[in-house]
Amino acid sequence: MDQILGQVLRNAVWERLDMLADLATRADTDSLVSVARSELPRLTEGWRAMLSAHEPDERGDCPTCSTRWHRCKAPCSVWQVAHEHLVAGGLAPQQDLRRTWRRTRANVPAQTRAPKPTQAETTGRHALIPQVAAH
Ligand SMILES: [Zn+2]
């Protein structure tokens, strides 16, 4: 059961990221501004929360990625990805990367994936209501 819930949770996050990426390419200017104002602070807070959990400890190891038997030196993979996408790659859209993500997710069972949002859900006032809440 925990595995199923974990899959549902992960799928909800993937679907949310897909929806935001689709909005970035398809929504009109007013919708984009609205989405940017509401979602950018949430995304930056999400990054901050995740990176905080991966701040190096006094030994220079990542406390989250390290285990009792294997110490993971900072910067761990989470920080490396953050730097790659937020600093080195800038904030420009990366279509090729998105396709890579989709490819790696291809083995996700279809019945656990959340339904695609309708046109009204992705462009209207209620576009940002979490899809999970509807289930
Ligand atoms: Zn880490």
Please describe the biggest sheet, giving its number of strands, its sense, and whether it closes into a barrel.
Answer: none
Mean of pLDDT: 78
Q: How many separate domains make up the residues?
A: 2
Q: Number of DSSP strands?
A: 0
What is the helix fraction of residues, given as a range?
55-70%
What distinguishing features does this structure have?
binds zinc ion, 5 helices, mainly alpha, 135 residues, extended
Q: Explain this structure to me?
A:
Residues 106-135 are annotated as: Disordered. With 135 residues, this protein is mainly alpha-helical. The chain folds into two domains: 1-53; 56-112, no CATH class. Helices cover 56% and strands 0% of the residues. It is built from five helices and no strands. The longest helix is centred in the N-terminal third of the chain and has 25 residues, at 2-26. The two termini are 17 Å apart. 5% of the residues are buried. Mean pLDDT is 78; it is low at 95-135. The chain binds zinc ion (ZN). Zinc ion (ZN) is lined by residues 54, 62, 64-65, 72, 76, 78.
Characterize this entry briefly.
The chain is an all-alpha fold and 135 residues long.
Indicate the topology.
Layout: H1 2-26, H2 29-52, H3 77-88, H4 95-104, H5 119-123
The protein binds zinc ion.
Region (Disordered): 106-135
